[in-house]
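Hi everyone,

Forwarding the result from last night's run.
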Amino acid sequence: MSKRNSNADRFRKQAIASDLEEPVSEARNLAQKLGLEPYPVKYWIIDYDEMNELIAYGGFQTRYPHWRWGMQYDKQRKQGQYGGGKAFEIVNNDNPAHAFLQESNTLADQKAVITHVEAHSDFFAKNEWFGLFTGGQADEEQVNAAAMLERHARAIDGYMSDPEIDRAEVEKWIDHCLSLEDNIDQHRVFQRRLAVDGTAEELDDDLAAKLDELDLSDEIKGEVFDDEWLEQLEGEEEGVTFPDVPEKDLLSFVREHGKQYDDERERAVEMTEWQRDVLDMMRAEAYYFAAQKMTKVMNEGWAAYWESTMMTDEGFAGDDEFMNYADHMAKVLASGGLNPYSLGMELWEYVENTTNRREVLERLLRVEGISWRNLTDVVDFDDVLAALEPPTALESISSDTLADLTSLPEEWVDHEALERARASEIDVDQYPWKVLTQEGLARRHYSLVQRQNRGFLSRVSQNELERIGRYLFDDARYGSVEDALEDVDFGAGWDRMYDVRESHNDVTFLDEFLTEEFITENNYFTYEHSKATGQFHVASDAAEDVKKKLLLQFTNFGKPTIAVYDGNYNNANELLLGHQYNGVMLDLGQARETIKRIFELWGRPVNLLTIVTEVDEHDIEVAKRRNREPEAREQGKLLRYDGREVRIEDVPWEEVEHLEADDVDYDTKPDDWLA
């Protein structure tokens, strides 16, 4: 690119950035008014190619040298060209966060992604699962991800440039490490591992003393007590199973106990310093990105919810931008497959609506003469909704109606901002939210009276009413429905959302809020492939089946849960892994290739126990004739790789029984997190 074109490109981006200064500033002000607490965000304007490059790099400008980035870049570019999708922005989890906006976005698009980014940054800052990465550091508030990734990039580039290290070997070693990037214990606070104690040359003090007593020459010691003898002795001394409990952090385990396989010597030898260093770096990056994988639905849904609240409900999209924004949002929410934006936003709205509904029902059940048995018969829900409508003075705010705000409760109005609006220091026609507090905004956007939610209150089931009524503290009574509704907490829904945003991940979020009511109202169902017909078909619309199917897709990032069961298998320093079977069998082809990679990190034979389902071909033919599914049989399997070939053999059920989950194991929170 010529210097002139480069300068023109820079000036164009600077012009776009200047136009976005006010939207960026006001979007943050609005987000904070709504109760969000985002990290500071630095915004960058980039072009199409730069956007594809950043997406390939996971949202960061500098990553270690590796072929995977080129592959991901090519995939992203082709998706944009042929798939019809467009990346409007990308934001990373850092403090400060960095958000990259595509220069081709319209102003409405830019406003939408800015509000979206502010909500993402709030989620990064407040969700406890993101805190697991920084929890072991001195300054827990500082993420410093960009600095960490840049350090890793420099270190790995240094190893690749070292004339004494084969660049291809470094890249191959990274490949081995990446085969285990999802095999960490993502529910544990991240801690960098210390250097492995001791070296290959350091002998046990007692053994060294005994050798000194023999007064042997160095030549004899070297010939008799060689590396092979020491490894055999080590194996005899470690004739016990370790770890004591299955270890899910495979990267940590091979980093502490693994070796590299030396092809020339045909045996395991100690890893080099650079190999352990690369292992440490890959593990740190796996832990950093784990929280994003664990909260994809929650995070995207959270950002979509607050983006919609700001752009639509608060009119952050101007009148001339609204249709453009509506088209933008419709495309995002309507994209095919399991859409985290759509599912997440629907679930957050459900959290808000169910909380607000419960708050109203608890008030109504305290009215004299009303119980869970007769509430739906004696209460007119249309009258209740009319009473819950926001006052006109709150709903329609302009420079001409500022005097009407004096009729509102004190806690709803930001009186300092109101005075500034009266002095024409605030453009209240463009930014009416500035004269309100968070409580006022919650009242202004109360969910149960919004058009799409007006049937939600009356949809309550008798079982739900009984559940609320039976456990209701009789600490207040009201003489009338009107009196009860005056005590409704209009911020209850948002408060509940803030609490859920702090403590949940996708699995716990779906487990708690993917209820039968939600599944039925949103018409979810499961489908599966039929062995009998060779086609996909609807399997069930039962809420329990839908919930299990969805949860399985998010447990352990949707990947198999593998743990170390023995680091001294067969008392031969072999590695025994176990696949924690939850009804979904391993892809044995991928499993074969993966244990070959693990062998390079362990240096000795690798074994993997799993359970598979097998169907006899004769049973399939019979099932086809009878128009039903064949019955599958579960069988234990042991995969073993010794550096030469992969062998797969059947094993007795007793050897794999401990791997089978009693029920679907969602592997959610550690026990000590549960109250």
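DSSP finds 29 helices and twelve strands in the chain.

Cheers,
N.
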